[in-house]
Amino acid sequence: MARYYLTCAIDYANGEPHAGHAFEKVGADVIARYRRSLGDDVRFAIGMDEHGQGIAEEAARRGSDPQAFVDEMANVWGGVWRRLGISNDDFIRTTEARHSRAVVAIIERMREAGDLYTDRYAGYYCVRCERFRKENELADGRCPLHPKREITWTEEENYFFRLSRYRDPLLQHLETHPEFVQPASRRNEILRLLEGGLDDISASRSRLPWGIPFPGAQDHTVYVWMDALTNYLSTTGFPEDGYEDWWPAHLHVIGKDITRFHCVIWPAMLLSAGVELPRTVWAHGFVSVAGGKISKDAGSELNLDELNDRHGKDAFRFFLMREAPWDGDRNFSSAAELLERFDRRYNAELANDLGNLVSRTAAMVHKYREGRALPGGETVLDEARVSSLRAYHDRMEAFLLHEGIEAILGLVRRANAFVDHEEPWKLAKEGESAADRLDSALGALVRCLRSVAAMLGPFMPDKAAELWQRMGGSEGPPTYAEAAAAPVAAGLQAGEAASAATPIDVRKGPSLFPRYDPDP
RNA sequence: GGCAGGGUAGCUCAGCCUGGUAGAGCAAGGGACUCAUAAGCCCUAGGUCGCGGGUUCAAAUCCCGCCCCUGCCA
């Protein structure tokens, strides 16, 4: 069984999660579930970044002890992810002992490699960015990203990491591994950044107690980004034996705003420490409202739990993946527009197209064949089904999740047209003479819905499982193998997909996606 | 300021690489049907393809300039 380790960026524990965070978690979860549906042994890790001055200050502001504060935040965030159906196998927190052990280990390896040295640093320090800014980087004497914060002149003796030394190796790695940074637009940005040269960066902070003590200099703490990045390694058990069962990671899912940390600093740290590099860093775009990240402004109208409850969590997951491209951005002009599109998509695509297809199929199988769909012969719908499976598989392997959904919906539309074209109700009236044709049509529809369930599983786990079971599937999530989709996944001939079908007992049930009628 | 991507039907976008009748989905209007969640199916879009030049028999599609938006870096 192939192993597959993927991660999300860990979240900074100084505030509440919003729809933008959900976009990343759901996308990564879709990939995790997709890999599982293919039979991979998946490890999916998410977590919290709990160190740094920003946390210490927020805790103080709330009159709380930092540890108590991050404990509370971990509960809040973890709860949200549970309600969204995020199937993470681990939840790493940077205040855990297993994490600081890994951080200390990697720092020590970097030191042994001769990549750490001490120097005096002076500059303006932005607490929110957790980084120094040069004078010419300031706007009106403040950090351009956080203009509301005072920025303070700071001088300190720091440890530095010889990042500059890794410019050429990194460039070479990106050249020889084009899949390392994706999508390609992000890779180009990193290439250009590297071509411009790299400065060494500080690896420690003094007078900042809320962090991991720097090995060999207990009055310093490890630079928060180096601390945070190492989480990907610490969930594998690094540096203990056996961590290589999961490392290198196949995929780091991150936001496009932190590519430099994941595509430059992190791999440089790993190169320095003599640890293998992750295979791919995927930088997704943002879901935004009125041009800004979804946050406090839109937050009142776009509360995550309310969005989750509006049409059910699976519908919300579907909406996020359907509406926003996984390789780009999606801006809504207002919170109202977002909700309107959510409602429309829900009614048009889930209730009308898919939900109705499920009920009309189940109803016909019961009305004309007492609930049992016979295999019948292959139809044009089987051809459409196989090509959808192919397209879906292609798109999902390329991490184009929104296009994967499109492949599913295309098949659903096709199936509805197929019903109207075949007119099974007429075939039923014709009796014996049309019996074969009726069986073929109903069989094709049931096979189609089984494949839809398999493809939909990563996006809408509960609804897909329900659909799967109604269409004669066994307990548990649908898989490629069982959904007559295995030949496609395995690259075999298309025709074999349908021939595996045997009589299928179909169950009727309440509407899978009841139409939403907003205050008639 | 440098680099990258983008500006196409009311909305969200595809097409542009490999020039030659402008497409899809949603929303809207009409029709035939009845298995179904009054859902589905079929028909209906006359949009200066950001602006101005150029190349060509022919440009949304290639070249040049400009305007606007977004991102990365300064």
What does this structure look like?
With 520 residues, the protein is of the alpha/beta class. The chain folds into 2 domains: 304 residues, Rossmann fold (3-Layer(aba) Sandwich), CATH 3.40.50; 168 residues, Isoleucyl-tRNA Synthetase, Domain 1 (Orthogonal Bundle), CATH 1.10.730.10. Helices cover 49% and strands 16% of the residues. The chain has 20 helices and 19 strands. Strands 1, 2, 3, 4, 8, 13 and 14 form a 7-stranded parallel sheet that branches. A 4-stranded antiparallel sheet has the order 6-5-7-9. The chain has a 3-stranded antiparallel sheet with strand order 10-12-11. Helix 4 packs across helix 9 and helix 17 packs antiparallel against helix 18. The longest helix is centred in the C-terminal third of the chain and has 35 residues. It binds one RNA strand of 74 nucleotides through helix 6, helix 13, helix 15 and helix 16.
